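To whoever is on call:

I kicked off a structure prediction for a single chain this morning and the downstream step that reads the tokens threw a length-mismatch warning. I double-checked the sequence; it's 106 residues and nothing unusual in it as far as I can see. Pasting both halves so you can look.
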Amino acid sequence: MPQELYDQVKDEIPKHIGVYINGVCVKNPKKQKLGVDEQVLKNSMIRSLCRDVDKQIKSGDPNYVDVSNRQIARLNKQVKEYKEKYWDLMRIGQEKYGSRWYKEEK
């Protein structure tokens, strides 16, 4: 959501709904139970994906799959890099504060 739009509607957003602006969470969501049956939700998602696939097939763009595969590869590479950075930070924390430094004491 653009910042300008958020500024206009922020008072109308329910408390349990989260908001992301440019990939940054500016309002945390609250966990809630599903409003509809899980099976209905899954079936709706499948139908929606089928419509998207039909649109893509009808568009006749042969490069779409290649573009999508490159994007998937790039995202997988980012995931790997973030995991490596996470474990590097965990190792630094363990070296400095011990092996259970991130656990809350009860």
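Update from on-call: the warning came from a stale cache, not from the record. Cleared it. Sanity check on the structure: The chain has a mean pLDDT of 87.
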